[in-house]
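User: two proteins, same treatment. go.

Assistant:
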Amino acid sequence: MNVKIPPPGLDPLPSRISLTLLLLACAAVTSTWAWADTPVIEDAPRLGPTVTSPAAAQVPEPDQVTDATQKLESSEPEALPGSAPPSPALPKVPPEELMTAGQRFENGVGAPQDLDRAIDHYCAAAQLAHAEARYHLGWLYVSGRLGKRDEVLAAAWFQSAAGLGHARASQQLESLKAQGLDLEAEPPCVTRADMVARRIADLRPPAAAETAQPSSTPDAEGPRLRDIGAADIIALVERLAPDYRLDPDLVLAVIKTESNFNVEARSPKTAQGLMQLLPATADRFGVTNVWDPVQNLKGGMAYLRWLLDHFEGDLELALAGYNAGEQAVARHGGVPPYPETQAYVKRIQRLLGVEAGVKSTQATWREPADQG
């Protein structure tokens, strides 16, 4: 850099000022070059020095974060089976509402038919000490409705219901000859896939089984096929009909019209047995042996109960559905114009002494007040 020195005699102050300004300009240029070579750090802290701790320097990989989250979640306490999660709190459902929902799933009325979901609802009500729920679970397991008959599990549920004062449960225990047996105090709720066929007779000591006389002894549900007569059928109906909320007279009128109490009746349309069950209907209601009069009665009564619920208690439509199928009733918007079906409905109405258009006042059995 060339600096001119003022000649002698001149005042050096202006020259010194110029020199100072020149030096300041050079310093500014030099500083600008230095900053231009410095990399810019985005999002750097604006206050204080940047301090990197050893822990902060070890940044976890995404997989490590995921694993840690899973471990954290798995370390949280889980709700006990069958209990509501702690948050948010769920309102308790009354057992009566659970029973109503179970009936809808069982019968396919107001909900898709799903026997397993019906069992879930009945079981939830049973856990709330609802005697009818426990009784009904016992009935499901013994009736064959679920595809197999488990008399042992059914007896355990009947025993549980009887302990709550359910009178018909005590009668069922007596019918199964299950008194005094070592049954589960807290029977499980078993769905269709896990059902096993068991008999009460298998729990008895061998000596007792040897002294029994199968040729003359009725089974747990009633007389054997070769011994059954009209009186036995009437007794069975009177005992079983209340389980389906049916008037025994209605069931007997249907049997009289369908088979005239002939346990071996068979129609040209493949309807079979006392209540003339078609194969599809038998399968639908869990009848595994259509020639077993007890199973046939239970399947027919289950179907009749379903029809009454489906048609909201309209006896005419229920009877027409039993003869022609519920689809035919729906298709025609009432009793189908088939001569056979119309004669069928009128005949049963005459046997019952009811008028056309009657609802289910004489179709539904009303339980006496003293029974649980």
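Protein 2:
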Amino acid sequence: MQGTTERRQVLRAASAAGAAAVAGITITDSARADDSESGDPIVGAWVVTHRDNPPGPPNIGKAVVTAAPGGALQNVEDAPPTGVGAGAWRSLGGGRFQSVFQTGVAGQKAGDPGVIVEVRPRGRVHGNTMVGTYTLSGSSADTGDVLFSGSGTFTGSRLRA
């Protein structure tokens, strides 16, 4: 039972991390609230809601994410608050994008190395909204063995100052 509880906690954290990766929060001065100067519609800040697909539980989370010109991204999970992830995005043209980011999830007990979660979103931006799908996987931080994988969907709306 304890293993099941730990796996659920990691999956919740991973799903929250997953959709957040979709866009990203930049850690540089180059992030803007919109894409008016960059020419790429994903650039800017977004509020993203994500939901895992079955067979896992339909974990739903919210994140604030921002994509920076040049392809840097970072995400912050708000609900549930599970941390920060960093990665990269690239344009596929026509408002479409793909990205990848990683975040760490702490171990559940002393000596547990934790899990590295990698999320790979693909989506489309249209005006002030975005939609898409993502895959995610979690690997042991010490061995790299894949512990779980899954997928989900996301929607987002532009966050303006």
